[in-house]
Amino acid sequence: DQLAAIGVAPERVTFLALSHAHWDHTGNVYQFTHATWLARRAERDAMFAQPPLALSRPADFAGLEGAKTVLLTDDEYDVFGDGTVIIKSAPGHTPGHQVLYVRLAHSGGILLGGDLYHFPEQLQLGTVPAFDYDTTATRASRVAVAAYLKKVGGQMWVQHDFAANQALRKSPLFYE
Question: Distance between CA 18 and CA 97 in Å, rounded?
Answer without folding.
Answer: 8
